[in-house]
């Protein structure tokens, strides 16, 4: 049985607002073991609403609708559901009394227009709304169970939690658990990661393993469906272990964890301080570290040296080195890291140089980046070349720098 | 003719990620007069993909698809489109060569799995991707024109702007014009701004004027609907002028322009150099400046001084000052700006100190921020207190610092 979520409103299809209701519902449904196959968003147009409901009722066994239950002329869910079911709208006294009582509690007179909120498709069941005037609607059409809820997030959330979720559980929908584990990697491409995991990512594998890439971070999602939380965990654990064994230190964290959090966790464990000397990233490495709570204990600070002169005066980079090799070179990145470590008096220092664009240099293309790490006994650098937009080059260079710190502390701590 | 946008990915239907691609596309389409009737989001499942494409191709004349074009096994758009059209997938040498060239530029060997990205439904037209390996697909099915684009936002944005939009215009899709002008302000609250513009923001005003606030930046949106671009512009121009007259130097930019862009434009005009000395913002001011193209000409660099010791050694802040007033004080912010200007040898220097949390200090609450600006003849500071989360405090402190620079250069150049 498939599940579909429908959000109604021209403010969504026009792009004015972002549809967060569907995301919220998908997450809540996953918690009770219901996977969502489709989200549909439809403008405030009666025919389009009927069409969307019809498609959903044919391809899905459970449909959750949000929006279109208000009192105004562009609120069309009631009428569209009636047309879908081929029935009339009928007046429901109890719902009407509740709406009036809601207005009375607010010390206001009910406008005549709110009367339409007490109309329901014949045969439908009203769902009381404890925090607003719009009742929800439960309706069976063929083999499809539809629930319509208000679009106002706070009202929708309460109606789902109090009324819909218990109903889904009692209908024996859900019942199981859908549990997801996300494992984040950095340091190689999506296809290289997948090549190591082809047996896991193939279709039909239990649990399901998906792979996505975002700004050079490759994430694996293990999705387990089981009767209980424990069984789902038991499905995930061995797969997570296999992934970790095969990917080794490509893996830096789980769920929403970012590289800088992994770096700060390692610095804290090993009691090592860090400073940054940034060219191409212009403060982004420092910025990301500073986002982490408690960062100031181990991240001491950094220098953004856009002007070459600062590399000489504040990082003691030898002037002839820049003249001989150019500012964007492995040698200068290494000298910056070494100088930064001395000036900031830290255990580790990391540096970035590169060309973020828009223009490259004669012999150096946009996207060329060197990052270097200095520690007590040495210094090393890595280079990359991403022919990307300015912001993307900076973001990846920052990740490369953070990853250099991570791998060093992990391996040599 | 109706338009539908389809986003593909289990990370969307599961609620893990929010579908921002559909919103972005809806906005871009509105700009060329195309209203969107449906958004559909579908999980990584071949049958569901085919079903979603079929429904869309029947109810819409224009369908834009994002996602599912990657090289991995859960990328199913190519195959689903082929099934929809009832054709085979065929290999396209030119696209294959482009993918190989992209890997070559990155200095990497193309994994065998990426070969699938050169497969297209027979009869479809490949759309080159200048910034990624996944080409797009243009396909006519019955009376429906489909365009499939990568799901990675940066790649999708470029492909739409460069390839799809011109095509839509040449096909004569799009009709009237929906034109929006956004005017951005910083330095006061939303209600103060609205009080100055009540006659414009009332409902029914033509053109429509909306007001929104995001991270302390207050934006006014003028929305004009007209038959032609010129008519829409003519609606907008006098309203924009009125807004600018009434708001004066609260206005810093238009459309997506940010404070740092306004700052760098002013620095360039007046030929002034700038450096940053950051405490609470941890590199965010430098980071934002570095995001602007050409920043390095006037933004020389900055210091992130998380560790107090760095304020003494690298900014010459007098140690007794910190002992007497505390690091989070107007006096220390001012001393940092003055010291930064000297050490970095710039015309202007701006500094931030404050408490981003999670914990405050006995006499200083989370959200207390001082920012200071030093110039040739003096120094000044402003303070604020936002009882917000860490990231929000840092972001607003950075904006306050940038605004200090902006107003100074604007007024005293």
Blueprint of the fold:
The structure is a homodimer of 413-residue chains.
Chain A: E1 3-8, H1 10-13, H2 21-31, E2 38-42, H3 46-59, E3 62-66, H4 77-85, E4 89-91, H5 93-105, E5 119-121, E6 125-127, E7 136-141, E8 144-149, H6 153-170, E9 177-186, H7 190-195, H8 198-201, E10 208-214, E11 217-226, H9 229-247, E12 251-254, H10 259-270, E13 274-278, H11 284-291, E14 299-305, H12 308-315, H13 319-325, H14 330-344, E15 348-354, E16 368-375, E17 378-385, H15 390-412
Parallel strand pairs in A: 1-2, 1-3, 3-8, 13-14, 13-15
Antiparallel strand pairs in A: 4-5, 6-7, 7-8, 9-11, 9-12, 10-11, 15-16, 16-17
Oligomer classification: homodimer
**Residue share in helix of chain A:** 40-55%
Strand content of chain A: 15-25%
* SS content category of chain A: alpha/beta
N-to-C CA distance of chain A: 51 Å
Largest interface: A-B, 95 and 89 residues
Residue runs with pLDDT of under 50 for 5 or more positions of chain A: none
Strand order of the largest sheet of chain A: 2-1-3-8-7-6
| Principal-axes shape call of chain A | elongated
Q: Rg of chain A, please?
A: 28 Å
- Helix count of chain A equals 15
**Total number of strands of chain A:** 17
Output mean pLDDT of chain A.
92
* Largest beta-sheet characterization of chain A: 6 strands, mixed
């Amino acid at each position: 049985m498939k599940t579909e979520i429908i959000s109604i409103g021209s403010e969504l299809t026009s792009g004015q607002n972002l549809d967060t209701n569907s995301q919220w519902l998908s997450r809540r449904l996953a918690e009770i073991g219901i996977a969502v196959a489709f989200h549909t968003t439809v403008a405030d147009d009666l025919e389009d609403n009927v069409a969307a409901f019809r498609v959903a009722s044919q391809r899905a066994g459970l449909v959750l609708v949000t929006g279109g239950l208000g009192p105004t002329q562009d609120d069309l869910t009631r009428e569209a559901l009636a047309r879908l079911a081929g029935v009339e709208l009928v007046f429901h006294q109890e719902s009407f009394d509740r709406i009036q009582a809601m207005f009375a509690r607010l010390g206001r007179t009910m406008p005549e227009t709110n009367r339409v909120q007490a109309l329901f498709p014949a045969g439908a069941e009203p769902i009381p709304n404890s925090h607003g005037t719009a009742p929800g609607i439960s309706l069976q059409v063929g083999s499809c169970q539809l629930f319509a809820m208000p679009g106002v997030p706070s009202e929708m959330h309460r109606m789902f939690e109090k009324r819909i979720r218990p109903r889904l559980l009692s209908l024996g929908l859900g019942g199981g658990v859908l549990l997801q584990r996300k494992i984040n990697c950095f340091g190689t491409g999506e296809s290289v990661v997948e090549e190591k995991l082809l047996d896991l990512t193939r279709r039909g594998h239990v649990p399901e393993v998906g792979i996505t890439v975002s700004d050079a971070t490759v994430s694996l999602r293990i999705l387990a469906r089981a009767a209980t939380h424990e069984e789902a965990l038991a499905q995930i654990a061995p797969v997570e272990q296999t992934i970790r064994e095969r990917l080794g230190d490509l893996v830096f964290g789980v769920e929403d964890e970012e590289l800088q959090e992994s770096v700060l966790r390692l610095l804290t464990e090993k009691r090592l301080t860090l400073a940054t000397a940034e060219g191409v990233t212009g403060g982004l490495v420092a910025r990301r570290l500073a986002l982490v709570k408690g960062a100031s204990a181990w991240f001491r600070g950094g220098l953004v040296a856009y002007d070459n002169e600062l590399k000489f005066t504040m990082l003691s980079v030898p002037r002839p080195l820049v003249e001989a090799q150019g500012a964007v070179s492995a040698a200068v990145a290494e000298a910056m890291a070494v100088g930064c470590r001395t000036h900031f008096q830290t255990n580790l220092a990391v540096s970035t140089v590169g060309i973020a664009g828009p223009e490259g240099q004669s012999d150096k293309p946009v996207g060329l980046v060197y990052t270097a790490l200095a520690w007590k006994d040495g210094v090393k650098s890595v280079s990359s070349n991403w022919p990307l937009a300015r912001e993307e080059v900076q973001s990846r260079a920052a990740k490369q720098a953070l990853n250099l710190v991570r791998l060093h502390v992990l391996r040599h701590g």
